[in-house]
Write a structure and sequence with these properties.
Elements: H1 3-18, H2 20-42, H3 50-62, H4 91-96, H5 100-126, H6 128-139, H7 142-149, H8 158-170, H9 174-181, H10 191-204, H11 208-233, H12 251-256, H13 259-271, H14 286-295, H15 312-326, H16 334-345, H17 365-374, E1 380-383, H18 388-391, E2 396-399, E3 410-414, H19 425-433, E4 437-443, E5 446-451
Parallel strand pairs: 1-2, 1-3
Antiparallel strand pairs: 3-5, 4-5
Length: 453
């Protein structure tokens, strides 16, 4: 074997070996997050109605039909709410295993893939010590954990795409940056602005033609989605979230509202990298997300909970890698990054896996099972968020706040969910729908009533 041939073979083998560690770390995080999601589901700890919404949409795709989400309103096409056709990629797996856990596992796997990419590029560019600190910090970051606790969301697809686009940027593979950025346009409508900023960052790097076309194309696509596609699927013919910018209070008042929370969110987002991210133009990608979050009249957007910071995590950690590539002295920033990450782990969702109570069955598990057994498969059900995720697979589920003119056969309310549900399911059903209703089950705070023929 010639020396040249031997060198070529080594070059082919070394990258694979270099991926072993990051791949193992990504697998471990995926398993941990899937386990966390699964235990929360088994313990009847609902975060919201979102997992059930996405399950109804993906179930529609799995039948080669439209993503109809009755939870948002009878016959509501979810493409008229958020434009996220990428979720159809989960449909083949859901067809094999139709269950809410399919979505939870899919999200954990997508996040795990992003962990592999971020860790691998960090180790490759900054060296093992700094790279591993960044990779571990990313996998344990508050934005990732908060997203997992919020159950499945479409932005889970954006995490590996942004990680791959960012890794390509760090390594100056401009064509790959564009290739990995374009699918983001199918993840969610607001990411068109993020892709436009990627184009601007490419322009700053000297890739003027690619950057300009990417930015302009992303802006045109965003306009098409917001002004044409979403209104076409929306029953009101509009983009519902446009009114949230400024809201009734006005844009300036909303922008100035709760500055402490907003500044803390920005500080923590950059602080998890030891501020190394600010030394890279790639950090500009956080601007569109912060802009819509901080100008929206919805306090849930302003803090660090929920899934709203998930996509910021691969952005800032890749930016940190790029910052260290530009200024090697910044590798010392991993020290404060590790401190901030360790601080956020105290009382974090992942920390609950160390709590014995997490592994115990819920006191209401038996009652929840009896509720599901009392309702025939395929029956129409109006419910609150208490068991909405557990009922969505085998029933036509409506949410009591958006049921419209539907007339369900069953009403299920959770008096312990603390979401403002009516206190008496039987009285509620009789008053709202008339006719004869009877109580089927009243067990551990769950009330089930049905309409008599």
């Amino acid at each position: 074997m010639s020396q040249a041939t031997g060198t070529t073979l080594l070059e082919r083998v070394r990258p694979d070996r270099a991926l072993v560690g990051p791949a193992v770390w990504g697998l471990l995080t995926a398993i941990a997050f899937a386990t966390l999601s699964w235990r929360r589901f088994e313990r009847l700890e609902p975060t919201s109605w979102d997992n059930a919404i996405f399950e109804q949409a993906i179930a529609g795709y799995s039948r080669l039909g439209w993503p109809i989400v009755d939870i948002k309103g009878p016959g509501f096409n979810i493409l008229g709410d958020h434009f996220s056709p990428v979720t159809a990629l989960v449909a083949p797996f859901y067809r094999i295993w139709p269950a809410p856990q399919t979505l939870l596992v899919a999200q954990a796997v997508l996040i795990g893939v992003s962990v592999v990419v971020v860790t691998a590029v960090a180790v490759r560019v900054t060296g093992r010590p700094a790279g591993w600190v960044l990779g571990v910090a990313y996998g344990l970051s508050f934005g990732v954990q908060s997203a997992v606790v919020a159950d499945f969301h479409e932005v889970a697809f954006g995490a590996p795409l942004l990680a791959l686009a960012g890794a390509a940027y760090v390594e100056r593979r401009w064509g790959a940056v564009v290739a990995w950025s374009l699918p983001l346009l199918l993840v969610k409508e607001d990411l068109g602005l993020t892709v436009a900023v990627i184009g601007f960052v490419l322009w700053l790097a000297g890739e003027r033609r690619r950057g300009t076309w990417l930015a302009l194309g992303a802006l045109v696509w965003t306009g098409l989605v917001l002004l044409v596609l979403i209104p076409a699927f929306n029953p009101s013919g509009q983009y519902d979230y446009a009114s949230s910018v400024g809201g009734e209070r006005g844009l300036l008042e909303v922008v100035l509202a709760d500055p402490g929370t907003k500044l803390a969110t920005v500080a923590l987002t950059l602080g998890v990298t030891g501020l190394a991210a600010v030394w890279s133009p790639w950090v500009l990608l956080v601007v569109p997300t912060f802009a819509w979050r901080f100008t929206a009249d919805n306090a849930f957007y302003w803090g660090t909970d929920w899934h709203y910071s998930l996509l910021l995590m691969p952005i800032v950690f890749v930016a940190a890698v790029d910052g260290m590539r530009r200024r090697p002295a910044l590798r010392w920033a991993v020290v404060p990054a590790a401190v901030v990450t360790a601080f956020t782990l105290w009382g974090s969702p992942l920390a609950t896996l160390l709590d014995g109570r997490t592994w115990e069955p819920s006191d209401r598990a038996g009652a929840a099972a009896r509720v599901q057994a009392a309702i025939p498969d395929g029956a129409s059900v109006e419910t609150d968020i208490g068991l909405i995720t557990h009922l969505a697979t085998d029933h036509r589920v409506y949410w009591l706040g958006t049921i419209g003119d539907a007339r369900p056969r069953y009403v299920v309310l959770d008096q312990y969910a603390n979401v403002g549900s009516p206190p008496d399911a039987l009285a509620y059903a009789r008053d709202k729908y008339g006719g004869r209703w009877r109580l089927v089950l009243d067990d551990a705070g769950y009330q089930v009533v049905t309409r008599d023929p």
